[in-house]
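From the methods appendix. Each design record in this collection lists the tokenized structure first, followed by the designed amino acid sequence. Records were kept in a plain field format so they could be parsed without special tools. The example shown here is representative of the layout used throughout.

RECORD:
FOLD TOKENS (117 positions):
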């Protein structure tokens, strides 16, 4: 299960992180996305929130992201947190507008970030 929030700026994103923590999410289960990679990293570092990596995506998707365009990489990372392809596309468009996406995911450690068909 996951929760997605849209923030206009870094301060609003930081406030959303606090709000999500108050709802029971751990900081390492909260992710901040920005279209610019440096902005994402800066906000993640400043708020001490999680970053989507091999654990969330799996080795192949993580390595594949090195060769993807930023939009493809963002959609892949959002999908690894439980968002559908359509949701990830919708929120990537929001990122194109300069806004931030804050996602809190309470996937269990033994739960894969995707569903096998």
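DESIGN:
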């Amino acid at each position: 299960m996951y929760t997605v929030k849209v923030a206009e700026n870094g301060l609003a994103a930081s406030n959303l992180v606090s709000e999500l923590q108050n709802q029971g999410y751990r900081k390492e289960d909260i992710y901040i996305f920005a279209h610019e990679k440096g902005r994402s990293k800066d906000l993640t570092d400043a708020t001490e929130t999680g970053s989507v990596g091999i654990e969330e995506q799996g080795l192949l998707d993580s390595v594949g992201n090195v060769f993807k365009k930023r939009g493809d990489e963002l959609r892949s990372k959002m999908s690894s947190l439980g968002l559908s392809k359509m949701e990830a596309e919708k929120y990537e468009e929001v990122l194109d507008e300069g806004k931030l996406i804050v996602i809190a995911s309470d996937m269990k450690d033994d739960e894969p970030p995707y569903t096998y068909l």
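APPENDIX NOTE: The chain has one domain: 2-105.
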